[in-house]
Design goal:
eight-stranded mixed barrel; Alpha-Beta Plaits; Beta-Lactamase; single chain; 20 helices; 3 domains; alpha/beta; TIM Barrel
């Protein structure tokens, strides 16, 4: 018997030898895999072994003869097709994550490995293993199937450190697909969906483990890949793909920036924070803050800058290298100080330098929880300098919405408060960046825990957006701070007074007190008082100061007497 293959035929002895090789592959693969398959050059399944029935709900007999597309989950179908094309060039794949059609819908991602035998009719042998993905619960982009941009840094850092520990060289590349949005407008819905899935499949296929790629913006992507990947070939592949999909044949142009993470000493946690910083700078590039060309030139230095900044900020937190500066919250009618907001001033900054850039850095790199805890600790320490049997000074410290969902922060904060029960009527909390609270039910549980411990909670930036009222209905708080921009807008238009009065009235009906911020002039004080706002805060009564006695007596306190408020 002679078997026909590409380029000629082979004799029965060779066929027997090749089948023996397959049998050895099957025997060895069973030590690792749950499912084994052999595909012909067209992707049809010609051999199946393993535990297909409990995983896929089909026996090997049911699957044999089907095309591989029929058993791969829809979300990964484009990728498996792309992977098979890649094996025609490179011969093998390893550790790719693929989901199949299971008994109850798509299976969890299964690790896939395999190789193609040119001398056996170009057949592809693959082995799939369950329970191999650490990223099954990672958020994903719905159009491409890629990892969501917010989740990418941790996944990328894990993959990079894992490969680094194995002595392998990996890199991260950020990709800008210019004019992708214009191309999508030229496509019908089906073609557009197919293009986005194909783009996702290509990025995943070229990434390590077949699942270390993310969509980080409308036209931008990122992937962790082997150092051997030819970026120029990769760019041409995407450009060709886009031209094939474009009815005008124009397609998109690709620009990339690559960074090599070669610092073995940086921890996985700090690497993730550095990657967040780099990805955010890339997103700024997409918005026009940088050109991608300049970003390409500076990406490695950005990575070094990010790592140094992370290390430096963590040291600032550990050393407590910042001070508290106080600003009074004053009754709008009686002029009495109700409490003080404790703001932060970093030792490395100028005397009056805003801490905004430090806080923003901490929020975007995930360090804000550690910082918020350090601020609360410093506030407790400061309060401890005064007699514990007096409530002369009450201060409010900020909690970022990022921190509310941080289990380590929440646990540590509650421990701090349990260890210092005497601060319950002296320490308040003000939640900033509330838009960062993804789970409002969980956030409310956290807030109620603080309130039950005797601490008042304020919701900052109220009225800055339509979501404010959603937060008000979902979160039970004691106070809301009316956003400064909302106060200014209310004063500038004829309907502003009615709007602000309505907000103050709503809060009053809910037994929630109100604070108007950015009150810098007497006219603003009179306006918000007449609208029914309870408290005011602003430069009218002085700049924030590390010396709380600068507000005794209260600067401009006579305005209350002059105006007979």
């Amino acid at each position: 018997m002679v078997v026909e293959v590409q380029g000629g035929s082979i004799d029965p002895a060779t066929v027997a030898r090749l089948k023996a090789e397959r049998d050895r592959f099957v025997a060895l693969a069973f030590c690792w895999a749950d499912i084994l398959m052999e595909l012909d050059k067209d992707g049809k399944i010609v051999f199946v072994g393993g535990t297909t029935l409990p995983i896929l709900g089909k026996s090997s007999k049911d699957i044999t003869g089907l095309h591989i597309d029929s058993i791969v989950a829809d979300v990964d179908r484009h990728m498996i097709r792309h992977l098979l094309k890649i094996t025609e060039q490179f011969g093998r794949i390893d550790g790719v994550q693929v989901r199949f059609h299971g008994i109850h819908g798509p299976t969890p991602p299964m690790a896939l490995a395999g190789y193609r035998l040119d001398d056996l009719s170009n057949h592809f042998f693959m082995a799939a293993r369950m329970g191999a993905s650490a990223d099954a619960g990672v958020a994903r982009d719905g159009e491409t199937g890629l990892i969501d941009g917010d989740a990418f840094a941790e996944v990328a850092a894990h993959r990079m450190k894992k490969r680094q520990a194995a002595g392998e060289d990996v890199k991260m590349t950020v990709v800008s697909m210019e004019d992708l949005s214009n191309l999508r407008e030229r496509l019908d819905e089906a073609s557009e969906q197919s293009l986005m899935k194909t783009v996702g499949a290509s990025l995943r296929a070229h990434s390590v483990d077949g699942d270390a790629a993310a969509r980080i913006g409308p036209e931008s992507y990122s992937l962790v890949h082997d150092a051997s990947l030819d970026i120029s070939d990769f760019e041409r592949e995407i450009e060709t793909m886009s031209r094939d999909a474009d009815p005008t044949g124009e397609g998109v142009s690709i620009q990339t920036a690559t960074v090599d993470v070669d610092d073995a000493e940086i921890s996985e946690e700090d690497l993730a924070k550095s990657l967040i910083y780099v990805v955010n700078r890339f997103q700024e590039a997409e918005g026009g803050a940088f050109t991608i060309k300049s970003l390409t030139t500076n990406l490695s230095s950005l990575m070094s800058e990010a790592a140094a900044s992370v290390e430096g900020f963590k040291k600032v937190v550990a050393d407590g290298a910042f001070d508290l500066a106080f600003q009074p919250i004053i009754g709008s009618r009686d002029g009495q100080i109700h409490h003080y907001e404790a703001l932060t001033r970093f030792h490395s900054g100028g005397k009056n330098e805003s801490p905004y850039r430090y806080i923003t850095f901490a929020e975007e790199t995930g360090l804000i929880g550690e910082f918020d805890l350090a601020v609360a600790g410093k506030a407790v320490e400061w309060l401890g300098k005064w007699p514990r049997n007096t409530s002369r000074y009450k201060i409010a410290v900020n909690i970022s919405g990022h921190s509310v969902g941080n289990e380590a922060y929440v646990s540590s904060l509650h421990k701090l408060l349990r260890d210092n029960p005497w601060v319950e009527d002296k320490l308040m909390f003000e939640i900033t960046e509330s838009s960062r609270m993804a789970d409002l039910d969980a956030a409310n549980v956290f807030i109620q825990g603080l309130r039950k411990s005797g601490h008042h909670v304020c919701l900052d930036d109220f009225g800055a957006g339509s979501a404010s009222f959603q937060y008000m209905s979902a979160l039970e708080v004691d106070v809301v701070k009316l956003d400064g921009s909302a106060i200014r807008n209310a004063q500038s238009g004829p309907k502003g007074r009615a709007f602000l009065t309505a907000m103050a009235s709503l809060c009053k009906s809910l037994a929630v007190e109100t604070i108007a911020e950015m009150i810098d002039k007497e006219e603003g004080l009179i306006f918000v008082r007449d609208c029914g706002v309870n408290y005011v805060q602003g430069f009218l009564f002085g700049q924030p100061s590390p010396n709380i006695k600068d507000f005794d007596p209260l600067p401009m306190g006579d305005v209350f007497r002059r105006r007979r408020l």
